Amino acid sequence: MSGQTDMVLVNKKGVRIDGRKTDEHRPVHIEAGVLSNADGSAYLEIGKNKVLAAVYGPRECHPRHLQDPTKAIIQCKYNMQAFSVSDRKRPGPDRRSIEISKIIAEALEKVVLTELYPRASIDVYIEILQANAGTRCAGLTAASVALADAGIPMRDIVPAIAAGKADGHVLLDLNKEEDNYGQADVPLAIVPSTDEIVLLQMDGNMTREEFDKALDMAFGACHDLYEIQKAALKTKYAATKGGEEDE
Ligand code: UDP
């Protein structure tokens, strides 16, 4: 988020470097139940981002001192693979991945009925296989599909997407160049049935009007993603049901 580049990120016709309009998100593809050894899983692509999410649990919480006698805890590990970016990322946890793991777990805690599973742990693993900006939102969107795929009771599933500002324009779903050279990035995650916000961050600067416009765009796109999340789960269950009937 340097805000400085000679690159034209949005041309005079309002078209972005990847051909999108300012209020358009990248193409999204979600598949549920892609890992047979996890209790629930999902694979998600949004533009060039490629993300895998796996869920285990509810299961006994380790380390035991983290157990909560009133509810399950959600332990999330967001990890960016060394090969996920063009400059190799140093493997292992860093401040950024610890922060992202924490905010994703906090967003998921708002929808999972954790009170049904005292002392348990629900473990969520997010692997970023390919990154092109927006991976925390992509990871959270995939993780909530994986939780639903695991059959974990939830109030709703959570879609997430960022909006921001680059080249002086308010843009939906910033790509890597727009994120690197842009002026602001605002990741948002909501509970679509109530429009409650479960994640909102902001990096950079925008006016109040620009912020409101970015938030409006991100809310609309979250509702689009929600439909794709539900469709992925329906496809998985239609396939499973067909398989069971065949047996
Ligand atoms: N990035 C990178 N190396 C890193 C961290 C991030 O190349 O160690 C890139 C990656 O493409 C990522 C983007 O920078 O998607 C934006 O990162 P940010 O921290 O804003 O999180 P994100 O937008 O992925 O949620």
Automatic annotation (TrEMBL):
Q: Molecular function terms in GO for this entry?
A: 3'-5'-RNA exonuclease activity; RNA binding
* Compartment annotation: Cytoplasm
Q: Which GO cellular component term is one of those annotated?
A: cytoplasmic exosome (RNase complex)
What InterPro entries does its record include?
A: ExoRNase_PH_dom1, ExoRNase_PH_dom2, ExoRNase_PH_dom2_sf, PNPase/RNase_PH_dom_sf, Ribosomal_Su5_D2-typ_SF, RNase_PH, Rrp41
Q: Which UniProt keywords apply?
A: Cytoplasm, Exonuclease, Exosome, Hydrolase, Nuclease
Task: Respond yes or no to whether keyword Cytoplasm is given for this record.
Answer: yes
Any idea of its EC number? 3.1.13.-
Presence of the UniProt keyword Repeat in the record? no
Q: Which GO terms describe its biological process?
A: gene expression; nuclear-transcribed mRNA catabolic process; rRNA catabolic process
The family line of this record is:
Belongs to the RNase PH family. Rrp41 subfamily.
Question: What is the protein's name according to its record?
Answer: Exosome complex component Rrp41
Can you name the source organism?
Candidatus Methanoplasma termitum
- Give the gene that encodes this protein: rrp41
